């Protein structure tokens, strides 16, 4: 039966198959660091890459020019946008 995660703990329980643990331990030894340090450092690098990919928008040159043109020359608000603005103002 799985244990409930304790709210006030810094532990991160994880079961690793022996072959994978041995591979991680070998890599950690090659970098002259502990298994914990190796796993944490590389997990954080992977986490940053995932966050960066999710939070950053990359545009090519054509898309960038299109956005900049919209900012310089915004279209006139249509009926839906005006209605949404009225609803938003009414909420405040």
UniProtKB/TrEMBL annotation:
The keyword DNA repair does not apply. Keywords: Plasmid, Toxin-antitoxin system. InterPro entries: Ribbon_hlx_hlx (IPR010985), TacA_1-like (IPR014795). It holds the Pfam family TacA1. One of its GO terms (biological process) is regulation of DNA-templated transcription. Belongs to the TacA antitoxin family. This is DUF1778 domain-containing protein.
């Amino acid at each position: 039966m799985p244990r409930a995660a304790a709210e006030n703990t810094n532990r991160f329980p994880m079961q690793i198959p022996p072959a994978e643990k041995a591979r991680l331990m070998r890599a950690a030894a090659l970098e002259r660091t502990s298994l914990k340090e190796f796993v944490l450092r590389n997990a954080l690098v992977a986490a940053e890459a995932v966050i960066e990919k999710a939070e950053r928008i990359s545009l090519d040159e054509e898309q960038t020019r299109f956005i900049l043109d919209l900012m310089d020359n915004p279209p006139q608000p249509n009926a839906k946008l005006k209605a949404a603005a009225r609803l938003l103002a009414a909420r405040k």
